[in-house]
Amino acid sequence: MDVSLLPSEIAEAQSAFPAALAACADLDALNRLKGAYTGREASHAARMMDLLKAAPKEQKRDLGAAINAVKNAWDEAIKARQLELAAAKKAATWDPTLTPPMPPKGALHPLDRLMGRMTEAFRPLGYHIEEGPEIETAANNFDGLNIPEDHPARGSSDTFYLAAHPELLLRTHTSPVQVRVLARYGAKGADGVSLLEKKGGLRFLAPGRVYRKDEIDPTHSPMFHQIEGMLVGKGIGLHHLKGTLSYAMRALFGPDTKARFRPSYFPFVEPGCEMDVSCPLCAGKGCRVCKGSGWVEILGAGLIHPAVLSHAGIDAKVWSGFAFGMGVERTAMMVSQTPDLRLFFENDQRFLAAMGGLD
Ligand code: PHE
User: Cα–Cα–Cα angle for 356, 299, 269, nearest 5°?
Assistant: First the structure.
């Protein structure tokens, strides 16, 4: 720009501008500078317009261009400084809505969260939670479940017995809770009527720890978790079992989940079955987790064996029902794609943090 055309007072203001701008330490000072340089009245810019108006005709074009260039340069520089000061002000401002630095939050263990989700899946169907002790009697863990005297699971190579109390053991499954609950519901009250009759049936879930004499390796642990489920009513059949479990699996793994039932054997159910669900990871297309089959095994189930009902004093000609038992770790390994079960028990903070949630 040709500032030589500008009168000396404007040229002076122009040369003082950079230092004056740099000296503006806050937005108020900048606004004052802005008024003095580019304001509508009593500013250097207003003065320049007056000069332009008064200038001889033949000078107007060049003078006008010079004035414009100077004014534009001031506008630009002021705007840039304004952004700078606004950003600095924001950074320096104390914001009471900010979260202060906090210690890391605690969280439920991923297995606890998964068990919560698994039991939640049955809640709309009216199941309540029951609990039984981890130290059980052989009567509840085996006898009441129609498990024969010579069954290998009763042996001390499979089951932890208490050295000082050989009739006591660490329960090998959550099924003894069936025996306890059935005994409570089957017992006749002072009025000669059982809880089962009063309530017209029962349905419950029993989550908890179980123990087996297994060497620990990537897929075995001497302690793991199961969730037992049981329903007793009148005229209960396999269709109720299939409907209930299919519903719960859709709630747990998503609305497109399919369930399939294969015949299997457990002494306390007849008929017995195992249930697979379409692999939640590949939607049944076949992947590493389901070993290409599209299906993963989730639980054992069946219709309650009449001997189990009779053992609890319940008339198996009147009452029937179903039971199922789900493995928690197996499901956790599958949905989180964790290849080594031991990670769930070692409490390595890095693993737990990476798990975040199993949802
Ligand atoms: N208790 C069985 C197990 O541990 C599972 C099961 C429960 C099967 C209930 C049928 C009915 O393998």
Answer: 150
Ligand 1 atom nearest to CA at 272: 10
Q: How far apart (Å, rounded) are the C-alpha atoms in residues 111 and 319?
A: 35
Structure tokens at 195: 């809880």
Mutation pick for ligand 1 pocket among 151, 173, 205, 275 (CB with most ligand atoms within 8 Å): 173
pLDDT tens by residue, 159-173? 999 999 999 999 999
Please report the atom of ligand 1 found closest to the CA of residue 174. 1
Does residue 133 carry a pLDDT above 70?
Answer: yes
Q: Rounded to whole angstroms, what are the CA distances from 190 to 124, 180, 187, 195, 214? A: 33, 19, 10, 11, 45
Atom of ligand 1 nearest to the CA of 229: 9
Side chain identity, residue 177: V
Any idea what the Cα angle at residue 266 is, between residues 330 and 220, rounded to 5°? 30
Distance 68 CA to ligand 1 centre (A): 89
pLDDT in tens, 196-245: 999 999 999 999 999 999 999 999 999 999 999 999 999 999 999 999 99
Beta bridge partners of 86: none
Identify the pLDDT of residue 359: 39
Is it the case that residue 358 has pLDDT exceeding 60? Answer: no
Burial code of 186-212, b = ≥16 C-beta within 10 A, e = fewer? beeeeeeebebbeeeebbbbbbbebbb
Residues 324, 228: Cα–Cα separation, whole Å: 6
Identify which of 188, 193, 151, 192 has the alpha carbon closest to the alpha carbon of residue 172. Answer: 151
3 state DSSP class of 84: helix
Q: Which atom of ligand 1 is nearest to the CA of 325?
A: 7
Q: Which residue has the tokens 């989700």?
A: 117
- Give the whole-angstrom CA distance, residue 258 versus residue 111: 24
How far apart are the CA of 357 and the centre of ligand 1, in A? 27
- Average of per-residue pLDDT across 136-156: 96
What is the 145 CA–ligand 1 centroid distance (Å)? 10
